[in-house]
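Example 3.2
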Amino acid sequence: MVVLLLSACSLGASRPGLARHSPSPSSSPSRSPSPVPTAAPGAAWPEFLGGAERFGIGFSSPALTDIRQAWSAGLDGAEYGQPLVAGGHVIAATENDSVFSFDVASGALAWKQHLGDPVSGRSLPCGNIDPSGITSTPAIDPVRGTVYVVAYLSGFHHTLFALDLKTGAVRWQRPIDPPALSPTVHQQRSALSFANGRVYVPYGGLYGDCGNYRGSVIASAADGQGDLLSYEVKAGREAGIWAPGGAVTDPSGNLYVAVGNAEGSGFNYGNSVIKLSPDLRELDYWAPSNWAALNASDTDVGSVAPALLEDGLLFQAGKAGIGYLVKTQGMGGIGGEVFSGRVCPGRVDGATAWPGRPEGRRRPLRRRLAGRRRRQHRHPGRWLGVVDGRVDSGPDQPDQWGGEGGSAARPGGPLPIGRRRRGPDLRPRPDPALRFRPGVATMGTGSGSSAAR
């Protein structure tokens, strides 16, 4: 039986650029079928990790045994989100509140749209992004040909823009700040999600956890019309939704969000995973039994987004390096996971890739997680084991990452594109940033975007 669970693990070092960082259970949560990754026509990559399900698998990926840079292009600011691919365009957004479109084959600039002036980081009560503009990964609706992006604009307000994919023209815009909360202490770090005919926008706090912020999700109709929907975590303070992946969507349209540590009396939903309906009603939740200790030590469960598996399970990990398997139907509340185990010696950051069950394999999902001792996760023609926060390839592993996978680049750092090597070769890095389409892999850094064939 195969389970491929890949998370970027770090060894306890402080993570710049992210804030540290909750809802009542439902009596009758809705039924959700098991997600199954499928190859999308045209092999577009329109959202973080490829789609609203966040599987993170490029089904038509280039072989990494013979990889070279195809093109590179400069940007006008740091890029904290992932570049996206749709309709022959590579979309990149920057902290200067600019959105770029490059031709996916040549790297030629198709258009640039500057949405306004970003917020000076020095004008904020805390945080370490300066300037602060577009921090999250946008989302693309390939059918409507629309790019959705949230810009933090001078004057301290977040605005949702809908741009024409072909031209970059602004189709519409609307305020998207959480209601009755101060936008000066909220950061829109998590990726946008496009599902159920809506755009979902999660919020957390700034690095340093200053001010009275609370984790929230705001939703707008895809055409920008009608009232906004909103959900606010029921914590006294904090409980931010700040993982780069944001919300994960199941086949029924329900959303799952992981939150960080929180303040407040009693159980305050700190370090939990919350299930929301398409209209942002709370359906269910899960939290580890040591949620209070995790709150006190700033050891967020919500440093990565949940990963939907099969057999009605999801995977969640966090700064403690512990991975959990949780039922999506009847999540179990406090301490209700079906299994937990160490997956990394230190914290888990970034995101998780899930390729699904191989054809013809019908055994139940094995409820064990990779820990410091290598435990093999087999897949047709390849296996991967997590060893001390790195990926180790086995003798039956092709000299590539199965043609599918990702790497990461710290803002301002080098592009980690290279030939696949035997042995441990995936070092701890934040935010998977390597994206695939047929014959092309794209990634973003603090100074530009690049593509490789």
